[in-house]
Amino acid sequence: MDSGSVAWILTSMAMVIFMTPGLALFYGGMVRSKNLLSMLMMNIICMGVVSILWAVIGFSFAGGEGSFIGGFSNAFMSGVDDGESLLNFVFALSFAIITPALISGAIADRMRFSAWLTFISVWSVLVYSPVAHWVWGTGGWIGHGWLEEHFASLDFAGGTVVHVNAGAAALVACIMLGSRRGWPKTPMPPHSLHLTILGAGILWFGWFGFNAGSALAADDNAILAAVNTQLAAGAAMVGWLIVERVKTGHATTLGAASGAVAGLVAITPGAAYVTGMMPIVIGLGAGALCFWAISLKHKLHFDDALDVVGVHLVGGLFGSLALGFVASNAAFTDHAEGLFFGGGFDLLIGQVISNGAAFIYSAGLTFVILKVIDALVPGGIRASDDEELQGLDLSYHAETAYDMN
To answer: Between vectors from CA 70 to CA 68 and to CA 76, what angle results, nearest 5°?
Structure first.
């Protein structure tokens, strides 16, 4: 292996790992102060639980030789004993960690911690790993899964595997848990936008490892992915704030942070598949669309507490489907062209099928998993009224984020 590429992939891995604490701060600032530590724990615990499960079976299910799942050939790290396979293992692990963590924002303030631990353990193995295998195939990372082989779909860095997958689960989970006490009549503003902005900055930084690292080499694809990542995030921030200013009369710091993340999500599936001004177009579209999408929770009456569905599901779908129109063979990857570049409808159809399959599988399995956990975990998946009223920090962790004495 080229030493420069190895160094870049290891650096990217560390950047993606850093995204999970960044996500914890991003979400943590948006909840009420009595639930800050709970939100931090729901994210940070993924770094422990998923790491163990990835070594035991997750990596094998994601990257083995099977069709629906990878099988058991790499269970308990069997055969993962050379530099290349270990590098693949640990880089892919960083993605496996943050994906279930994304779901936590949708069910903030009201899920029992023991139920969350059980959920991420089962979901990461039975949902994340199979979907990663479908898209990226043998080797577990940027290979050729059956969705790409049979339907010519594209996902450079996780638009389908990470964001649509987690977004579908978040939608089902927040509906099954029900609304927070008092929502939507009781105001529940973010308690610390300072933390949210810091978290957004960490996510933005880490996303260069997320996208450019997915080139798996220090090459032209990595450079293109880095450029597109920056342009899309900046454009989405501007797009979100323009719509917000028109709709509400204000441009908010929360809107700036949310818009940037929406752009990062939307460019992920096509980070090295688009060129020129297309990442700016995708970013502007994602910012405007995701701003509109978060209003749906009020119209459809589901309490997606921190807008995971509006940003990650909608942003991931938008970015993935946009490839069907604007993917370009001018990109270094030399993949299929989108409709606007003379490629016909094949890629667009493939993107619809791939994301539809991931959505249906994730949503369906999430429903089943939560139903079983609700029946088996003492107290069920939902915190009691007293626990929710007191705050999950004290109820489950016997700590408070701020000492007012």
So the answer is: 145
